Amino acid sequence: MIFVLFSSNLFAQKVTLPVFQKNTIQFGDSSNQGSVIVSDKGRIISKKVILPVIEKPVQITVRMILKSAGDRWDRFGSVYLYTPTGNIELLKFMTGFGVGNKKVPERVNVGPWADEMECVNDISELYPLLKGGVVINAMIDTWVNPGWEITFEIIYTPNELAKNPDFVIPLINTTGQYPDYKVFDAGGIFDTLDITQQFSELKLYYYSSGHGGDSAGDEFNKKENIISINGSQAFTVIPWRDDCRIFRRYNPTSSKWEGDIWSSDLSRTGWCPGDMSLPFVYDVNNLFHQGQNTFNVNVINSERLSETLDYWNISAYLIGYK
After folding, report:
1. Contact 262/251 with Cβ under 8 angstroms?
2. Which of 112, 116, 136, 205 sits between 20 and 30 A of 124, alpha carbons compared?
3. Helix (H) / strand (E) containing 183
4. What is the spatial distance between Cα 124 and Cα 158, in angstroms, rounded to a whole number?
5. Band of the pLDDT at 103, cuts 50, 70, 90?
6. What whole-number distance in Å separates Cα of residue 59 and Cα of residue 278?
7. Alpha-carbon distance 82 to 136, whole Å?
8. Residue 114, CA distances (Å) to 76, 97, 133, 285 in order
């Protein structure tokens, strides 16, 4: 898909750019879908798009519509921007258990099942990367076929209150990589970065979610994430969500146990089935400097306590203002 780039002053109104339009993500089908390239045995789709060059200030949001094409389980997912120095998450989410499955009888105190799952996220802080030719990818950790149907778009809205930065620096992104839990026993995940520009303000965006299939795993236990910058501990956070019950409409195929408890109700490390996960944002003006810096993330007591695969989806980036 090609968009003609006009002078930025012509964009006085909202501009919506479709990226994926009811494309499928499913395991075992590697056939390309027109201009959408399929990889990882069907679990990742990619598309080259030309984004408009709009002068700031501008609010940039992304909107995703997702529904199950047959997958009954909750799966982690991400829509991310490829850059030569690292991938940047535009939207991090967990599918609901079979969201959109209308064949399941309605349950008491829930009402009609949702037709689909909709997520809208403000990513105005990524303005420096969201113009011109880019590659956008979407992945869902599905292992079945048929899997999921996804629609995704980027929306530009001129807004005098938007605060767009001058540069973005990717740090780490382990989403979908299943890093061995032993990396945390060995001190965590390290990155070295070179800040070449002067800045008056610098912020860190940090996404984190733990996953694993039983009560002893990283999915269901509070574990401290430690962020260290240039060799010193800077921040600690325990990703946790205890509001998952409100997303029942998006989980028709969730297991229902004794009483009124569903699998999708359970509190988890940084996510709920049927909702997106948001980043933690930190001011780091005095922690980074021009030149070479180091960045480290470690998860305390993140170890396999059973035969279940436990892992963390972690990503981070810096935004800077001159």
Report:
1. yes
2. 116
3. helix 182-185
4. 11
5. confident
6. 17
7. 6
8. 19, 11, 35, 43
Q: Give the tokens for residue 188.
A: 């965590």
Q: Give the CA radius of gyration of the chain.
A: 20
The 3-state DSSP class for residue 265 equals helix
CA distance 44 to 37: 8
Whether omega before 165 lies within 30 degrees of 0, making that bond cis, reads no
The secondary structure element, H or E, covering residue 86 is none
List the structure tokens of 128. 């420096």
Residue type, 18: P
**pLDDT digits 0-9 by tens, 228-268:** 999 999 999 999 999 999 999 999 999 887 778 889 999 99
Phi, psi for residue 71 in degrees, rounded to 5: -70, 125
Q: Is 231 exposed, middle or buried (0-12, 13-18, 19+ CB in 10 A)?
A: exposed
Q: Is pTM, for the whole model, over 0.90?
A: yes
